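Researcher: Please translate sequence to structure tokens.
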Amino acid sequence: MRFDYDIKYYDFFLLFLMIGLNICGILIIRSASNMDAATVSRQVIGSLAGVCACVIVSFIDYRKLIKYSFLIFAVCILFLVAVKLLGIVHKGAGRWINLPVLGQVQPSEFCKVGIILFFAGFYEKHSDSVSTVRTFFKGVLLFAVPAALILAQPNLSTTIIITVIFSFMVFASGISFKWVFGVVGSFLAIFGAVMYTFRTDLYEKLPLLPYQKQRILGFLYPEQYSNTFYQQENSMLAIGSGGLYGKGLYSTGIDSVKAGNFLIEEDTDFIFAIIGEELGFRGCVIILAAFLLIIILTLFHAGKSKDMAGKLICVGMTAWLAFQTFTNIAVAMGLFPTTGVTLPFFSRGVSSLLSIYIGMGIVLNVGLQRKTK
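Model: Translation complete:
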């Protein structure tokens, strides 16, 4: 492969920021898993594989990936269908599939990258007709296929994330503000109607699973549904007890919420509670600042992209990182109902780690091919 990129545009700082967060994540997982060697080893191996994949992908011309984006999209759909038919069920959800050599994989995580690539190419191709009724509904119908398959696993949290990614990409494609206001207005109306049902007894008629309804009820009425809200209550207690400087990494004192086993999923959904308790407010601010820098740099590459496809890739990755990070932290702090969303670069899970690294590798390649005028 011939590399004719200008290496001075390679964003080493962005790469080092991701690796820095990843290393910090491994240390936190080691603490959250009570020094479980198997868990930490898998995360380390996944991290090394992720960094290698990121660097390799960063030198693959994203235009070539866009060229085959329909094929990538089709493979994503096939894997989602395979998960529905052959998926491994865990805690009532069939989101994983066993692959030779690779072992257990969560295809919906990699589909986020496939969706970003596909719609970056789609909206570049239809840039002159992006605001027409035909193009709008064609894009929505194409997106509805993976969204419906992921929702059926069931995986509501990932469905919401890819919907946010898709929405931001459509907005950045230059679509008319009439469509934007119409969609936002419709969303607010639906959201208001759903919230109204939870203020009455009508919520039973919503097409949500029982545990999803319980999580929302626990968030809205924590005193009445304390058995559902207690996890978030313990998470907030852990974050608050960390104070300014935290209790120290691997803290096992009698005042430790983690050591007292008051947290569930502390190495995935509620890993920010461990960060708050052990690193304190100071550590949380540093980590949030690193995430913010990654988001700003990704948007910078969107602005410097030489074409629409590169811009939309970066916007999609920005939406993914920003929304998933915000949602995970909001849940840990009791600002959102429990959703099952992981914290990028921190939470346990090789599939999520690899997918985010691959996506950011494409962003790095977009940065290598920035417009210079």
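Researcher: Any highlights?
Model: The first helix runs from residue 12 to 32.
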